[in-house]
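Quarterly update, task 2.4: magnesium ion-bound model.
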Amino acid sequence: MPRKEAWGAVFKDITLGQYFPEDSILHRLDARIKLGICFALLIVIFMLKSYLQYGIMMLAIFILILMSKVPLSLYLKSLRPMVILILFTGIINMLMTDGQVIYQFWVFKITYEGVTMAAQMLLRIVLLVVASAILTYTTSPIVLTGALESLLKPLRVFKFPAHEVAMMMTIALRFIPTLIDEADKIIKAQTSRGADFSTGSPMVRAKALVPVLIPLFVNSFRRADELAVAMEARCYNGGDGRTSLHVPRIIARDYVACAVCVLVCAGVLVVNYY
Amino acid sequence: MIEIKDLTFAYEEKQVLKNISLDIPQGQFIAILGHNGSGKSTLARMMNALLVPDSGELLVNGVNTKDEARMMEIRRSVGMVFQNPDNQIVAAIVEEDVAFALENLGVESSEIRRRVDLALEEVGLSDYATHAPHYLSGGQKQRVAIAGVIAMQPNIIVLDEATAMLDPKGRRDILALVEDMHKKGKTIVYITHNMSEAIKADRVIVLDEGELVLDGTPREVYANTSAIVDAGLELPRPCQVTTALGLGVALDIDESVELINASK
Ligand SMILES: Nc1ncnc2c1ncn2[C@@H]1O[C@H](COP(=O)(O)OP(=O)(O)OP(=O)(O)O)[C@@H](O)[C@H]1O
Ligand SMILES: [Mg+2]
């Protein structure tokens, strides 16, 4: 049944996330450094003004794409959900910006400034999406979670639950595939008893899912309960005093990556003054 | 070593364990049998200070489970393996799950690494160290859970129906591992309602409605045919045959064949 496969596909996308296992320099870089660099790039992208700056940034991102060894088609795929947003903001910007009119019809004016705005907006969104995709394609969600935890740790001073957030993400990553399997089993069981998930209006099909979601929900509570007991039995007592199997070490190449990032960002920002 | 003195426990109104007294010496392989709802899991949780007795005492290596300050000490010396393989694996990578207890205990990373590798080797899953548990079979998942316990180096291991959801091969693998750990000097508390899984134990106790009704070697306990039926259990097939023929207890097929041949 094509429709059910489509469901499977939807779920699968959630499971696998974005990670694309490869052996590239970017994959091997320390995840905390990668997160930091990605964050710096996102900020700089927001500050871009001139086409020259955009040009340098696009070149930098393009080099990163090549270094990641992740196929270009995947990056294009990551942009697909953004198409509507890009078109929408582009059109709004084009029509709503005042300035030197190049073309006019009915109440709409397209201005030179509007076109510039729209083009920059488009480039900006593309750069933002691709920059974050480079991070998520080259870092497994598990490693990323660990990196987030260690970067957020200082915030514990302000009572931010860094460990708890990371533990929640770890458990979610662990259980999403299990729950998807379970949903699949329930769907198959209900289908064999005559339930129909594949025909009717979206409303009807959504309603057909209720008997799938309820057992899934109830079971999740049972699972959560058992997992909590198992965690306690294994001496879990919150984040205090915890150590870790993996202690990621920052090595020479991470420092080099940082330095290059700082140079590129600084270069992009000062180039306007020349 | 576990010492239980006159232990009682109730969930709200329902009396689940009644006046249980039991001493489990270090290095013993004890099987706890009982039908559904007889209180086996409740007793198991007592041994790990997940629950504490309403009255009476439970001491693990001499430490009272009511002593909250020493709870972690108890939990690190009593490893628990539960029934559902899916609901006791915490991390999304096998080796990280095996490391979970050690991380909680604040063991140093290099030591965690060493113990995790050893534990995975012991359960035969070294090749799966960096896999996602999701892709393992039920039996392999249970072995991951056991590796997590082994890595903690407890001297007591409690398995609460750890094989109930496995196929025969998975079940045999786990039983072999359990015997292996017993040979290495661990105290084993093996909970099941399948009597044929308990034949390898040094000692078998039977719980019925929260009461300890039988206690002895498998051979002694299995001879009480009517008490076993009363407790809602079923003797292993070979034993059913030989006791029905009035030939006494046979623990496995070979023994029953011998007994039957000898009687001719
Ligand atoms: N959290 C709880 N709250 C209230 N009652 C409970 C709770 N857990 C168990 N019980 C009840 O206590 C009794 C003993 O439960 P327990 O889980 O110890 O039995 P068991 O021998 O492990 O059974 P099974 O073979 O089904 O695992 C059962 O009647 C059960 O309904
Ligand atoms: Mg139970």
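Highlight for this quarter: The first strand of chain A starts at residue 101 and ends at 105.
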